[in-house]
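Researcher: Please generate the 3D structure of the following complex. Treat every line as part of one assembly.
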Amino acid sequence: MTEIFYSQDHEWIALGADGLAVIGITGHAQEALGDIVFVELPELGRAVAKGEACAVVESVKAASDIYAPLAGTVAETNQAIVDDPALVNRAPEGEGWFFKMRLADPAGVTGLMDRAAYDAFLGTLS
Amino acid sequence: MGVGLARTPLDGLHRRLGARMVDFAGYEMPLQYQGIIAEHKACRTKAALFDVSHMGQVEIADPHAFAALVPGDIAGLKPGRQRYTLLLNQAGGIIDDLMVANVGAHLLAVLNAGRKAVDVAHLRGHGLDITTCFDRALLALQGPQAAQMLPEAAHLRFMDAAMLSIEGIPCIVTRSGYTGEDGFEIGCAGAAGEALAELLLARGAVPAGLGARDSLRLEAGLCLYGNDIDEATNPIAAGLGFALSKKRLAAGDFLGADALRAALAEGMAQKLVGIRLEGRAPARAGAGIQHAGETVGRVTSGVFSPSLNAPIALGYVRADLAEPGTALDLIVRDKPLAGVVSPLPFLPHHYAR
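Model: Done. Output below.
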């Protein structure tokens, strides 16, 4: 079973059986951004530090950075959201994933939130 | 939401419609309801309803005194007609851009929300007798179906103004707007604002927020005060020369006239241009503009155009690079994005002339 964790930057990170972590933005994040019209993804092989800006989403009105929730190396990117940025709005926590990383330290996910903790975190924002 | 923000008379309606509210010029305003792209397209294909009550409605008693502060032909503004004009400072810079209508008994000006206090001080400082009506509601009904949805005002032509009753609500209606589409701006007492909005929604108008208002005005090549024009901006450089009366420039009988005549004689160092980008990444306000590796200007407004499905921008560039077709680089996240100077408006206007 895939374990999914959440960051305070409204990103999710799913640890797959292949040892790669899939990163995307949450439903809350896509709703806050509005209609997404452009996505820029990191280059394959790029080493990123925890919290480093490594992708960009643009809505009609504004640009937002996507941060690496943990340190690691970019292993795969989702061309589908480059071709169809609105896919992030339609399926943020599924087909609209951003990139996969090989984590420098997979145990680092314990510092992130589980779904219940993230939902509670969302409750503190409004 | 910030403390001490003002709310428009339509605030309750926005919340019932599920709007996402943002702070704009000291007001809590709807950014969007269903989404910017859907609202934008509703305005281009049907009709959209915007709350623009944050803008300042001001009655001006003496047209002659007002004329001394603007470069337009106010003496020639007949009852029932409206005109776009500018409040200028001594240096020819733009204090505000505004619509002014002759409604018979007085002039009615509509000021930008963020400039109300400055404008009122400026007008009163020059001895004008003005009455602020900032508690009134102002709605914009915009789109190709606007006239069908407002048959009470369908007899008006572009830039006409009239006092009308809409289902018993006394309104001041002008056939104008800020989207490039046919449409109306409708002022009424604040207390009647929600009822007026509800009846226009019942006639089929789609509620639209500030997000769509911005993308629509940019496609229409219309300046936004504070972004594309300000007190340091010359109307000639901003492409607003159409608002300068040749007769009044020659007479030099308005504040800022001397500076504008000198600027016209000297020529402009910079000009506001439209820019179409080649990729899908938008360039936003503040992005540098380069030509042949040299910085030649900066972006003042940028958006992803829902109609063109491509990013567009307005920006000032060196005057010799303002010709449509000129290739420019817009610097976004330290990388150059290819763009080309485009004629304005980006999309043809559809006014009921």
